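Example 3.2
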Amino acid sequence: MSTDYQKAREALGTRLRELRFTCPEGRLTGQQLAQRLGWQGSKVSKLENGKQTAAPEDLKAWADGTGQPEAYPELAARLAGFESHIRSWRRALANGFRPMHEGLTAEINRASEIWVWEEAVVPGLMQTPEYARHVVQRYAELLGVTNGVEDAVRSRTQRQEWLYRPGNKLRVLVWEAALRSLICPPSVLASQLDRLTGMIGMDTVELGIVPFTAPVKIVPANGFWILGDGLVVAEDWHAELWLDDADNLALYRKVWKTLRESAVYGSDAHNTISAARRALAP
């Protein structure tokens, strides 16, 4: 279990203890609350000390049992927040890139349809090995990771087998900035753009480009992946967030659909990529 997850669970336990101490009829002991709720006494202790994850019905019973039913929405929000898996980059990469990549690969392989938005980098499922190496190396330098870069490149390359399985569909949106960001040498980016051009028309890939000149209804930021109908993976500088609650899934689907309204496809996407490619010429 991640340290971030455990800390959030312990914080929820602390809040539950506060509610027990501030019961309007007077402070309750753990045993008194357990008897009131029909629980074993150990359950109260485990929840308060972060040794057990509360279910929503546990939180509802706790709020009602301590005479503070108005606290339930707050408790439910806390639970939804930390059940979303937050993987701190520094902690996740403590043993190199390989374990982290293996976890994401497993989730990708469970999905038959993936929606992607990337604002500044070509998505991993479409990267050439050379481009991937430079992207991973930049993150390694930023976070002080000294091993596993080649493992990560191999993992990303092997992960692309997903694209060639009948019935799978990758729906990608990228901002034009991703076509022009020199995170790598121009020659490497040129090869990467050639690969993107070649992927237009693949039956498992739908590639949309949001040009710089396109009007947008939302700020084109914060890359994310929607895997199937049950998981969003979003990245920030400090962590990778795995979100599986209904509200966040609905929000990210809405963001993706809104960005799609500004995208171009087919020959227009090809022309946008070609323009970026020509800009790399001496």
